[in-house]
Design goal:
Chain lengths: ~375, ~375
């Protein structure tokens, strides 16, 4: 059985048993038990496995689902996980027992933290990354920015998720220029940095752009799974030209912000995305322009790194409003298995982005 | 310029101007104005066009976006519409001026209300539909159900969104049986009903299942855009084998439930889905197992039917918990351009589903 854990908050006048029964029916047969053939009631309806009261109100409940409900489709697993109940109050999905899924359904990232560290030759320290922007820049300008960041010592450069295939910097031309930027920086400094191309588009074009990015020499791909399709990201991670995948949270916000609905941020960003193929997961860091608490961010980090799941781990990639001068403090808080994603704080450095990258990478090399 | 309207609620200590400026930057360049080249600040950053105070607090603000931001990609339009701001508090997207979009970006449904009424030979009354379920039934059983509902006089039968390609009823076998069910009912009664096959899956498989459904004689397709990918639905609507598309709200819930975040239900279900190719939009009706108000449902209906948008209209398809005996009342409330989606209330009819369908369709034929 596929085991999923929920926090359940019955409505006024509803018992816990009624609410749990309604979830068991809603996410499987969508009919009341009285009209079900008995073999379907027995085999197909979800089964409550355990329950305990939560201190803050509500109950933690684990429900077991017949793996046949997925029919081997990852999309149908997503539907069983959070299809119709996404529209109901008082149900939050908090955990999945990934070992309980049919083998091969969620393959996880193609690389994971260990393999990426090996590929990149960075065995143990925290990493730094930036986004190449703003939209409106030419491919040549973005390629030049990429070179400057790489020459300054940044580890990863990714396209901004707002940069795709606009006439200012068409996809293939931009990828070519950014790859060239990374290579020229390497000639200059002897040190290799890595460039991720943004491939979000209609799923077939997303797959084609991923292939093209690999052909053009990009080191990875950036995708917004809640726009391109969650299973599209999984498809990228399973392709025969594996580039590591960074997942970006655009359009995902409403899923995690209600305390008694949706999914917890740690489940969505730290585990589900990872199960769906993300090697690195971008999430909005606390204290910036977005709204997670420090505890939620730390929970995302732990979830992404856990080494007891049946697929590789993923690098947490907090972003949004971090200042470069606070990075040593953030490394102490979040630990070395983190990719820090900085933007404004590098772009506004009075000495230019190469100097900003140099300062930031020096801090990371000195960090424990 | 692409014009989008928001309800904006500044945080404690933040002015309306600051909050609006932050949206204008966040959804375009993601950098502060002080580091932008002046031509990018001028041409690429969003531009506030007007603003008025809302009675209930907050402001209605229209922002204009450079259409080049989309780069001709519908996915990038979705990112501009609600990418990063999905992760921020106090911003609700309430409207899009569809006439302001680049031509061809959102093609809308292939049919729309008028063409569907003509195809189906139902010029003016309200329609009734059901879902074929429960999961766990065989293809033969679902085909038989389909025949019974059709023979009783239902207009549309769709697969349940929990029924996809499980071994109980594999996709092609099920579609074949349900098409046969519709045809046998027609032989029996002389009246044609219409069957929609559920095609949600990884985008490439979704497209393949849509083609296969058409080849096998299905009359339409059901898809969950928030699982298969929103632009995947648009792709189906633009294919050379056009089947009308029903959009299902699985996994979409969190987007509309917060009063000061997300999208309004009328924008998401009534307009955005329609722009993305849905001919019929399923939404959770008020008073059932889900949580919309009557006013929200009526707003969805109006939005789906509006005839002043640059693409065809869509049938609103309220579902979830409606009783067959209340349908005349619902027709009076919602009007004839509605497809009523009933499940339990038909399945539990003591005389069987054919009798239930007969009663329901008689009510609709008598309705004004």
């Amino acid at each position: 059985m596929i085991k999923v854990t929920y926090h359940i908050y019955p409505a006024e006048g509803e018992s816990l048993e009624q609410k749990v029964e309604s979830v068991c029916l809603e996410q499987s047969v969508e009919l009341p038990r009285r009209v079900l053939p008995s073999h379907i009631a027995r085999e197909v309806v979800g089964e409550p496995l355990d329950s305990e009261a939560l201190e803050e109100g509500g109950h933690r409940v684990t429900i077991g689902w017949n793996p046949e409900l997925t029919g081997g489709d990852l999309s149908q697993f997503l539907n069983t996980l959070y299809g119709n109940i996404s529209l109901q109050a008082g149900i939050r999905v908090t955990g999945v027992d990934w070992h309980s899924l049919p083998e091969g359904l969620c393959g996880g990232p193609a690389f994971g933290i260990g393999a990426l560290r090996e590929t990149w030759g960075i065995p143990d320290r925290a990493l730094c990354a930036t986004s190449l922007k703003p939209a409106g820049s030419t491919a040549e300008e973005l390629g030049e920015l990429c070179r400057e960041f790489a020459a300054g010592g940044l580890d990863l450069m990714k396209d901004d998720h707002g940069v795709t295939n606009q006439h200012w910097a068409p996809f293939a031309e931009r990828v070519r220029r950014c790859v060239e930027g990374v290579r020229r920086a390497e000639q200059e400094t002897g040190r290799r940095a890595f460039y991720f191309a943004h491939v979000t588009a209609r799923a077939d074009r997303c797959v084609a752009r991923y292939r093209r990015a690999a052909e053009l020499g990009a080191d990875g791909a950036l995708v917004c799974p809640h726009i391109a399709g969650m299973e599209t990201m999984h498809q990228l991670a399973r392709m025969d030209l594996p580039l590591p995948v960074i997942a970006h949270p655009a359009f995902s916000g409403g899923l995690t912000t209600h305390p008694r609905q949706g999914l917890t941020p740690e489940l969505l960003y730290g585990q589900l995305w990872r199960a769906l193929g993300a090697d690195l997961v971008v999430y909005p860091n606390t204290g910036g322009r977005f709204s997670f608490s420090l505890a939620e961010c730390e929970a995302i980090n732990r979830a992404a790194r856990r080494d007891d799941l049946p697929f590789p781990s993923a690098f947490p990639m907090p972003g949004g409003g971090m200042r470069r001068e606070n990075i040593p403090q953030w490394v102490e808080t979040y630990g070395p298995d983190t990719v820090f994603l900085l933007g404004t704080s590098l772009y506004e450095h009075p000495g230019g982005v190469r100097e900003a990258a140099r300062e930031l990478s020096a801090m990371l090399k000195e960090s424990p």
